[in-house]
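Notes, p. 3: input format for complexes.
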Amino acid sequence: MAIVLETKDLTKKYGDVIAVDNVSLSVEKGGLFGLLGPNGSGKTTMIKMLTGQTRPTGGSATVLGLDVVQDPVGVRGHVGIIPEQETPPSFLTAMEYLRFVAAVRKIPDIEPKAEWWFDFLDFADKKNVLCKDLSRGTRQKLMFTQAFIHEPALALIDEPLINFDPIMQDVVKDYLAGYVKKGRTIFISTHILEVAEEICSGFAILHKGTLLYTGPVAELAGRNEHLPSFFLSLVRKDRHV
Ligand SMILES: Nc1ncnc2c1ncn2[C@@H]1O[C@H](COP(=O)(O)OP(=O)(O)OP(=O)(O)O)[C@@H](O)[C@H]1O
Ligand SMILES: [Mg+2]
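Output follows (241 residues plus adenosine-5'-triphosphate):
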């Protein structure tokens, strides 16, 4: 299996804070890889480094064969990204935002593609509404759309499910599971461990910037373990309070 994402001793320090500490992991093509960890464990920092949004202070990483430090623009041109807590520009309508994304990414035939997404995520009635007037979940639908509308070989998505209602979580979960069956790859950070267990092929657990564990989800099942309890036992073991 080809490796589409690889980190070697990847490290990020913000002053005295070590947000990510010597993390080495790899993700196979066609995988749905879950990055798990408590609040502040370094997940968003990892995704920022992997998408050229922040520079590592140590180690290295390649994404689709491109070095994230040498070629951050190249990396961003080839992946889909949902950054944490990012919202679309307040002064554009949902449709205008997708046209803007299409212009920047040179995506052809944006109108029918956008229509498909408006229907699929059930927000066609909002396409001409200014983004500032959209609900939080609808803004998240738009962010989800912009990450996947060009069908990137690799999508890096930071906690994309959190603002969705249960129906939408189900729709999106099925979409992600189907997406990787076509040979594309997804790197997702999430706190929803039951979903990770259901749809992820591989996973990693970060805690205080350190990689506690990485491996295939099937391996846990083979040991008769469940991801949520495995996660809690590992992370709690390391808690000193
Ligand atoms: N720009 C920054 N400046 C200083 N410290 C930062 C910065 N960004 C993140 N940190 C610190 O790095 C650590 C990891 O933060 P990060 O946002 O990566 O965690 P996370 O795993 O995504 O958490 P959450 O689950 O809450 O989203 C935290 O201690 C955080 O305070
Ligand atoms: Mg985060």
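Residues 14, 17, 19, 37, 39-45, 84 surround adenosine-5'-triphosphate (ligand 1) (CB under 6 Å).
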